[in-house]
Amino acid sequence: MSGYRLVLPWPPSTNRLWRHVMIGKSMRTIVSREGRNYKAAVQLACMEQGAPKGMAEKVAMRIKLEPPDKRCRDIDNALKALLDSLTSARVWQDDSQVDDLHVYRAGVVPGGRVTVEIWRAE
Questions:
Q1: What's this model's pTM, rounded to 2 decimal places?
Q2: Among 1, 41, 64, 79, which is least packed, fewest CB within 10 Å?
């Protein structure tokens, strides 16, 4: 496999990604502070690790999740923040380009960590 390997921080759960706030007389849904901080951390990590910019082709991914503790977690709850943050970091144009996705959970790592391998889909 030729492609890119990135080691990223542990993402917030999808359940903690948005907040509902009243702005004027209307309820708005915004990205939570935790979500915004995660996007910034992913952008910095991508820049430091030489992530690709603006991939336009379909991609395949392998994601290794190493949670911060032994709590029970749904494996899919880590994906929304992760994929949206890679879009925000401009690794690709949109996460709809992901055609092949493999996700697995590994052992606990203090603080948690996500290892992402990205390559052009065949």
A1: 0.90
A2: 1
